[in-house]
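DM from R.C. (forwarded with permission)

"hey, sorry to bug you on a friday — could you get me a structure for this? deadline for the figure draft is monday and I only need the backbone to look sensible"
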Amino acid sequence: LLSHFSSIGFWGLVNNAGISTFGETGWLPMESYEKIADVNLLGSIRTTLAFLPLLRKYKGRIVFMSSIIAYFSMGNGIYSMTKAAIEKFCDALRVEMKKFGVQVCIIQPGNYSRSTKIQPLLSAEEIWSEMSEEEKAVYNKQYVQEWANFFNSILSEGSANGNEVVDAMVDALTSAAPKARYMVAKLKEKALVFVCALFPTVVMDSVLSYALSK
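My reply, with the result:
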């Protein structure tokens, strides 16, 4: 690695900061949307703009932490929203930076919640306490409890091998020919992305609706 950092100045920027929460769209207060968007999306943009002059000067690398959840949402639409937005920001930036010799890479991890603790387990009571009176009139605690159990079970299935994501980040920074996107996920997660990308929206909606109903 020293050969990459010895005399070329500012080489790479990794935008890794991220926070998350879960719940149906109307359950979350506007403050949650603002906070998560500020960290996951605007935080990465602020950092990128600050270091862009140096990255152009030294023909460096910019790495962004996205997620396969940018392609679909299963109870964490607020997080999915920010990752979909950062993907589009990267797509524009990657093309624009080619003329300067700056390469832009996106890391798309699957479920690594056990490695990162980005999404802590939440109790139904915590979710219920944040819901507005209007939402409480539509839903009930039993529904929220079932939702919490479902989502917490997904979190408990997350991979503990966070080194797989780190390896992708290192490759993006040091490879002579880095990939535009590194999808680091289980086969079934990649299959879900494949269905989402290639099949009509109604098919993906049916798949997700079925999964959520269970």
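R.C.: lifesaver. The two ends are 47 Å apart (CA to CA).
me: no worries. The first helix runs from residue 2 to 5.
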